[in-house]
Amino acid sequence: MLRNKRQCLFILSLALALTITTLLLTFYSNLFWNRWDYQILDHVYSRSLDDQKNAKLSPKIKFISITDRTYQAFKRNTLDRKFLSELNSALSDLQSGQTIYDIIFAYPSDSNADLEFAKSIADLGNVYLPVSFKLLDQEKPFAWQEGSFFKYLKEFLRKRPQEAGQSTAPYATRALVSLDSFMRASLSAGHINLSSDLDGVFRHYPIVVRVGSSYFPSLALTCFLDSVKIEFQEILIDWGRAIVIPANDKNDLNEDVTIPIDFSGRVFIPYFKFDAEQTERIDASQFLEKYSNEFNRGELANKYTEGRFVFIADVSQGIPDKGKTPIHEKEQPSVLAHAAVLNGLINNSFHEKFSTAGLSLLIIAMGLVLGVFACLRKSIYLYGAGILLLAFVWKFTFYEFSEMKLFPITTFSGIILLNFSGLLFGVLFVANKDQRFVQNAFSKYVPAGVVDQILSKPEVLTLGGEERIMSVLFSDIAGFTTISEKMTPVELVGLLNEYLTAMTNIVLEEGGIIDKFEGDAVMAEFGAPIPTQDHADRAVLTGIKMQRRLKELRNNWLERGLPKIEARVGINTGSMVIGNMGSDQVFDYTVMGDAVNLASRLEGANKLYGTFLMISEYTLEYLTPDRFRVRLLDVIKVKGKSEAVKVYEVYGECSEEINSADLEYYNSYQQGFEAYLNKNFSEAKIKFSHSLSLRPTDLASQLLLDRIRAIDY
Q: What is the mean predicted confidence (pLDDT) over 17-23?
């Protein structure tokens, strides 16, 4: 059923205002694509790959890895260039398609080894070597040096690609390259610069970097362009949208390759996972071992080299060239990022951000849906719409990711919650006037849970009550009168308010209601106004949390020069009457009954035993087995009760660790009390004496020892 016309008009106007506000806020404040969007997408990314819904590694890409096993073959911890020369020679013999080194050989080693390595690069004829640039956001002159690469770079920078839009690509200021003899022997080069997002995860890859007024491609892009016979100047860079590599009759592309980029020229890295057998990679020493047997060479060529892109990289333990990725638990070598981008180029498969226009339409549709459901009289429909929208966004994000589109799930979910919260406020604002009156009037002196019940069932305002099994808790500060005499009224009130606020928060946190405060005493009940099955657990857990919180407060108070405060708690469970008690004009929502009185007596009985949390046998019956640590303390007869009652101390949760000394104390006391009940007083005396030796100030053990001594046995 709809609300009245005036209320619906207000709610729909509010929905429109919220939608416009969120549109302006998100797009003009650049809220989309923050770190939280990407962190949630990391989970989606990993799940999508696990479910095989995303790009696979092309069979054209292979890895010959320099691993710990390789170094063991060297019998040294440095890279042997003679070994790499042998590797290059083997690749030449096996007709490797393109050989891509992800290693910069910046410093000379053994001169003969360097000569051999340079010659092997030249003989192989298809080697691509990496370049690392120092990058800055601001323009700064490039530091030119002597050497083959820098001559090549000057010539290359004349090949300016076509551009559209405004670039914010970083500027290269200096370059780190391999030895000149190596660079001269190589076929080409590309940059291997990578920078992580703010959270340290490598998600984006700079396809190009700016050198002066032109651009230099990444190692992956260089290799791909050469493989399809396309010059760098033929590509189109539309900043903030995409790099387009055009297909035509002169190159080997069947269709245009589109690389979605941001204004800095970065692409979202389309990572992959290796197959279970990891047939895509082989250890370098293992490769040469197999190559040494000529019968294996056909298999090696067919599996790893012929017409393929072969990455050679150091992936051994301890290399600095590693980083976090969205899909791996451990840090991975950066060669995976270069290979992933090359894989995306080969498959023409990159992730693209969801369009701004599409996001705008979804925000408008979301605002309309929430606005319509907010017009329904029952708020449950608005809650349902909000939950369904969030579930839709989650599923939609997975679907879009499988279609290679990135959806900003976190920000969009935040927009839903913002609109939902605003509309919920509007719904509350236009709610029934009588309900608002009841809420405003009664919330001042009735617990919030009772107010909710009054709003849903006004008939509970009549006098009377119902009988129900519940748990009730009494708490009182030990020696409060003495403490109050040592403090000024202002100090006392401040201390008491701080204490009662902390205790109240715990009661409400565990679903209880504060019945009343009497000075420093707190009375609370559990299992009302809405019945609960675990009311005893909640009451006992409240008592435990009260003692924990009081310990924290006590340390703080002592530092401030305030007295040491300790509180005793008594809990009982049983049948009691709950409801509105009083006169027709003034009444109180409270509990009454013999079970309530017993809880109050137990709180005071703590003093005799030096305990701070006592429960009755009736509460113990309702507790979840093995959840709390309890010990039978005594069998007592309290005022107003004709029968004796077993009382127990609760000294923690079973899930908590307990030190061996405390455990020995409690076990000794328990054994002593069992012997006492069986009238084995000599054994009981031994056990209680042992307990007292462990805790010399223990009143419980002393009380039982005195009682035994008074018995003539």
A: 88
